[in-house]
Recover the amino acids of this structure.
């Protein structure tokens, strides 16, 4: 009987002890005083948010190596007559430079290799036009003459006539002299039926890349792009039209091109390469120019060597950038680089520190949810604090506790706007039931041991 009374008294005493919680288990919480420092608890609302974010802080910046790309600075050795390396973007691209090619003085069209000329004369009756063939005998079908590699055409019965490099008027005079020498009536007409000797290559962001011929009329930039189906771009801001001429690269921003009609009238000349570039991709531009060098027969062993040197130098630059970035990352992982941190304590998913990011602000939501959020089983969403060192009105050290009550989940929107500062401490208090449960877990073994000893006695 005495043993039972003692056991009941022990149980009652233990229950009273657990009812106090603070006696058997100390759970951290935010108090108004700590080690002589005043603690000011400020409920987090829209007005308090603006005041908290007004604390000055400039995020650390990544080293310049993270803003560089291969080929963006310095001169490239060994280019020879190849085009200059196109500009490449940084993280903050600058406006595109306008480099207009020099004006081309319009010249009469000169017949070239591959052109097809048509030679015709009237019949004796004068009612039909017939092709000159043989000794200008009447023919039922028209026939053209292609200018051969040696620059001449061959008319049966008349012989070879050099036409390459001659204007249409000069070509007519040459044909006239050849016909007269054969004693044939020189009444004839001469025209160019196919223009194959002078062309401009158009590629890049156009509907259909093609070679556009230059005819008796001059060919301007707008006409060449129209012949290729027009420019096909979603965003014109950083797009450009690049013209490669005689080893020099010119550039017209697309926005400027459409805003200034005189640029659309830029006269092109034979051998020009026009490329509509949608970004700063060096490799794509080099590939296009390499193809055009093949088409226009401008490749040589010296240029090929220069291209290899260019590619090797770009590879070395990329390797150097990669190594410098890897070294910085390794130093940061080993703690050798200065960083700003925020600390997480209390009922969070992971007690840890959170490094503030480079070049941007981090919010309370970033810190909380990047580390798994609060521990939903034990944490009290109504007691989320950001503890920040501050000063009193008299200049003494103090602590400001920004209190976020997320009992209503809509309040988490404020967490996305609250900017963290170095050495902030994110603290989440435990649920009341969590405190009681932990106190019980600590006291229960002692209770069982004491009760068993009482029963034994």
């Amino acid at each position: 009987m005495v043993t039972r009374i003692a056991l009941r008294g022990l149980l009652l005493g233990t229950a009273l002890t657990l009812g106090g919680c603070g006696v058997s288990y100390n759970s951290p919480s935010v108090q108004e005083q700590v080690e002589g420092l005043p603690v000011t608890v400020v409920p987090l609302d829209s007005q308090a948010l603006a005041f908290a974010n007004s604390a000055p802080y400039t995020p650390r910046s990544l080293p310049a190596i993270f803003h560089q790309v291969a080929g963006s600075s310095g001169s490239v050795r060994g280019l020879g007559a190849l085009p200059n390396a196109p500009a490449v973007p940084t993280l903050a691209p600058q406006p595109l430079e306008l480099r207009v090619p020099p004006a081309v003085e319009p010249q009469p069209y000169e017949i070239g290799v591959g052109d097809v000329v048509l030679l015709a004369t009237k019949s004796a009756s004068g009612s039909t036009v017939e092709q000159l063939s043989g000794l200008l005998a009447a023919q039922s079908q028209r026939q053209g003459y292609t200018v051969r590699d040696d620059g001449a055409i061959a008319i049966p019965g008349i012989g070879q006539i050099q036409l390459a490099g001659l204007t249409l008027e000069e070509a007519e005079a040459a044909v006239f002299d050849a016909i007269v020498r054969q004693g044939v009536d020189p009444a004839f007409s001469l025209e160019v039926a196919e223009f194959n000797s002078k062309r401009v290559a158009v590629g890049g962001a156009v509907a259909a890349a093609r070679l556009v011929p230059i005819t008796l009329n001059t060919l301007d930039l707008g006409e060449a792009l129209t012949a290729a189906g027009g420019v096909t771009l979603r965003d014109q801001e950083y797009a450009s039209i690049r013209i490669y001429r005689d080893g020099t690269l010119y550039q017209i921003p697309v926005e400027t091109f459409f805003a200034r009609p005189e640029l659309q009238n830029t006269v092109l000349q034979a051998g020009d390469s026009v490329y509509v570039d949608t970004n700063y991709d060096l490799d794509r531009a080099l590939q296009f120019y390499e193809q055009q060098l093949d088409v226009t027969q401008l490749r040589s062993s010296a240029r090929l060597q220069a291209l290899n040197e260019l590619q090797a130098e770009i590879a070395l630059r990329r390797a150097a950038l990669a190594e410098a970035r890897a070294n910085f990352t390794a130093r940061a992982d080993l703690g050798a680089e200065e960083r700003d941190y925020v600390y997480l304590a209390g009922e969070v998913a992971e007690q840890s520190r959170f490094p503030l990011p480079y070049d941007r602000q981090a919010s309370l939501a970033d810190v909380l949810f990047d580390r798994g959020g609060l521990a939903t089983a034990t944490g009290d969403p109504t007691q989320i604090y950001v503890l920040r060192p501050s000063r009193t009105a008299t200049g003494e050290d103090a602590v400001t506790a920004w209190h976020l009550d997320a009992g209503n989940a809509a309040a988490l929107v404020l967490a996305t706007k609250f900017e963290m500062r170095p050495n902030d401490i994110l603290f989440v208090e435990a649920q009341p039931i969590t405190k009681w449960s932990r106190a019980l877990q600590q006291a229960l073994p002692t209770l069982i041991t004491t009760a068993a000893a009482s029963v034994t006695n």
Observations:
- The two ends are 12 Å apart (CA to CA).
